[in-house]
Design brief:
With about 400 residues, the chain is an alpha/beta fold. It folds into 2 domains: about 10-60 and about 310-405, Alpha-Beta Complex (Aspartate Aminotransferase, domain 1), CATH 3.90.1150; about 75-310, Aspartate Aminotransferase, domain 2 (3-Layer(aba) Sandwich), CATH 3.40.640. The chain is built from 14 helices and 17 strands. Helix 3 packs antiparallel against helix 11 and helix 13 (about 355-365) crosses helix 14 (about 390-405). It is globular. The relative contact order is 0.15. The structure holds pyridoxal-5'-phosphate. Pyridoxal-5'-phosphate (PLP) binds near residues 115 and 260.
Length: about 400
């Protein structure tokens, strides 16, 4: 067989030969990231409104991240969880402080990804009731359209049957009710409920906010039955929806929260935060992972947090969000097939009556990277430090993409 050459075959052609086909990949060969931009081998610049699906909150090659990587790489990259490591402790402390858990004795558990964080939270919730004398409390209530990950526990929690087909049997005890349906929720929550698990904004499912009535019902059910609430902040958290915590922004009283994506600044990192009551019952051996809380990823996490919590950073997110929403509304007024605006902060979407996959491709033809959510929503996830100029640029590109679809 002839050796493969980048010059004769695109990366996608080579990818198809070597990598199992579980993703539908775009035919793009990026070689460099630069702030809000990605650059291909031939020098074409793409404006990045995907941000690695909400991972690259500070854009590409942010100096604080580069500095953190260099500093940590000179000490050690990995220790294992047989020994305490300082970057892990520092990041945990900062997150506990920022979420107000440190003064209440809350604690953190580290892992490597979003699905692992949810997997851990589900296990901790069940273990909590097992150790506190209610082993029968195993039912997890989650929502139709939700996305919590691809490993078995998180997949069972996910409210999308299409993702589960052919992988059965699923772990037992997961009940899915329609999103924002208070009556349906009340019908299933009771003394047997272990936890209600939700995304503050159901992102993958179509960027659907939790209504105020829905949140009030969740909090009331928690108070009435003593079940736990797990907030999946993997996409909404760390400033993406405009606040550090989506659950606090919308009033959700969480006992456990799960974090990943932006936390590692591009390195794989996940985290579960929990109240003192849950942390106290956990014992050595209950759960673990070799790489969880890897020092390099945690050091980068600290740098990410420092940027996101710097004075004015979240004001910038709010300003860019308003700018983007105003521009999207103007486009919805111009193109009759564009509809409702969804989301908050810089987790924004717009409903399209034309096929969303076609709109994503049309945007790509305008050198703008965007993603979809649900069946009919164009999802925009720019870096949180995006400039006003780049937001205007993106809006002009979406306008041209929409115009191209009118022909
Ligand atoms: C809300 C939410 N939860 C969980 C996950 C799973 O995270 P990961 O892909 O890191 O396993 C995602 C990923 O998109 C997500 O958006």
């Amino acid at each position: 067989m002839e050796p493969l050459s980048v010059n004769t075959q695109t990366l996608v052609e080579q990818d198809a030969l070597q990598i199992v086909h579980t993703y539908a990949k775009a035919d793009l060969d990026f070689v460099q990231g630069q702030g809000s931009w990605l650059i291909t081998q031939d020098g074409t610049r793409y404006l990045d409104f995907v941000s690695g699906i909400a991972v690259n909150a500070l854009g590409h090659c942010h100096p604080a991240i580069l500095q953190a990587i260099e500093a940590q790489a000179k000490t050690f990259l990995h220790l294992s969880n047989l020994y305490p490591n300082a970057p892990q402790i520092a990041l945990a402390l900062r997150m506990l402080e920022l979420t107000g858990l440190s003064t209440q004795g809350g604690k953190a558990f580290f892992c490597n990804s979003g699905t692992e964080a949810n997997e851990a939270a589900i296990k901790f919730a069940r273990k909590y009731f097992d150790r506190t004398g209610s082993p029968e409390r195993v039912e997890m209530v989650t929502f139709l359209g939700s996305f919590h990950g691809r490993t078995f526990g998180s997949l069972a929690a996910t409210g999308q049957d299409s993702l589960k087909q052919g992988f059965g049997p699923m772990p037992q005890g997961f009940i899915h009710v329609p999103w924002n349906d208070v009556a349906a929720l009340k019908a299933v929550v009771g003394p047997h409920t272990c936890a209600i698990m939700l995304e503050p904004i159901a992102a993958e499912g179509g960027i659907m906010k939790a209504s105020a009535e829905f949140v009030a019902a969740i909090n009331a059910l928690k108070a009435e039955f003593g079940c736990l609430v797990i907030a999946d902040e993997i996409q909404t958290g760390l400033g993406r929806c405009g606040s550090l915590e989506g659950c606090k922004r919308y009033g959700i009283q969480a006992d456990l929260s799960t974090w990943a994506k932006a936390l590692g600044g591009g390195l794989p990192l996940g985290m579960v935060l929990m109240t003192k009551a849950i942390a106290e019952i956990m014992k050595p051996g209950d759960h673990g992972t070799t790489f969880g809380g890897n020092p390099l990823a945690c050091k980068v996490g600290e740098a990410v947090l420092q940027e996101i919590t710097a004075a004015g950073f979240l004001d910038g997110v709010a300003a860019r969000s308003s700018q983007l929403q105003a521009g999207l509304q103007a486009l919805a007024d111009k193109y009759s097939w564009l509809g409702e605006l969804r989301g908050d902060g810089l987790l924004l979407g717009i409903v399209t009556k034309k096929p969303v996959a076609d709109l994503v491709v049309a945007c790509r033809a305008q050198k703008l990277l965007v993603h979809r959510a649900g069946a009919d929503v164009l999802r925009l996830l720019p870096p949180l430090n995006i400039s006003a100029e780049d937001v205007d640029d993106a809006l002009a590109r979406i306008d041209r993409a929409c115009a191209s679809m009118e022909k």
